[in-house]
Structures are given as structure tokens and as C-alpha cells.
Amino acid sequence: MRPSLGRIVLALMLGAALLLPSCKKKHAAIKKQPEDVAAQKEAAPGPPPGNPVLPRPGQQLQSGGAIQSVREAARRTVDLNQMKNFALAYYQYQTLNGQGPSRIEDIKDALDAKTIEAFKEGLCVAIWGLRDLSSSTIIAYVTYSDSSGTRIVATGDGQARRISQQEFDAAMKGK
Question: Is the pTM value of this prediction over 0.70?
């Protein structure tokens, strides 16, 4: 089934209507005089820290509900991936050596630089030297909970997941 000519024209017009406003903004930015650009650079104290969409770990933003939800979901995804990679590295080290690593340097080759940095800065905390790992054993966790009260943890079976603050407190009491 071929799309009709009318639908193609409508799609092209809609696409042009969406693209033209952004082209206009780019064109206006290009016309700025060098003096204006230099004055703006001097007035601004510097670029905003970090990614404007992805907040820094633990950063509470004061923006609207939908934007904050998207940013928090992005942060949660990054944290889950970091915890998952850490859990797999920890599990592999424990399997090969009979006990968990005693410090981040033992598994640094299996982790990316941002994950190592998060542990060194104290945004993530590891429990070192564990021997008996299971899916209920928390081997690492992020130090902050999100707006819904959940915390991201890495478990001894090489997984990462979100748990409630109550589950976290109960699991940490046994340690």
C-alpha cells in the first residue's frame, strides 16, 4: 500500500514546520557580533557543571515534575548500570579467588572510570571481602535514595536492583 501524495506533502510540511523554528534560532546565533559573544563569556562564571539533562548523583533539582522525573530516571539508569558492572566484577573476583575483593583496585580493570570515581567520591559504597554471596547479599549501594524512597544496590549474584529504604535497612542490620 503506497501512501497518497497528500499524506507525503502533509508529512513534509509538518517536518518543515518543526525544523524551521530551530533553524531560525541557529541563524540568529550566527549573526551575533564577536563583541557580544565575548561580553557574554565574561558575564557568565563558566559552563554549568555536568550534563544539563543528567543530574549529578544525589543532586536534588527544583525543576518541574516531568523534567525532574526524566532526569531522575536517567540518573537511575546510570546508577543501575554502574552497580550491575560492579556486581559482575565483584562476583567474578569472588569466584576466582574464593572471597570478594578487599578494595576497588582489585577489580579496577573490570570497571569504567566513572564507576571507580563514584566509589572513590563516596557516592557508592562497597562491602569488601565477602565470602558467601547470594541474591540477598548486598555488596554495594548508592548512598542516596531517589524521590520514591528506593535505593539502588548490587547483590552477590551479579545483579543490581532497586529496593525500598525499609528493605535496605533490614538487609544492613544483618551485616
Answer: no
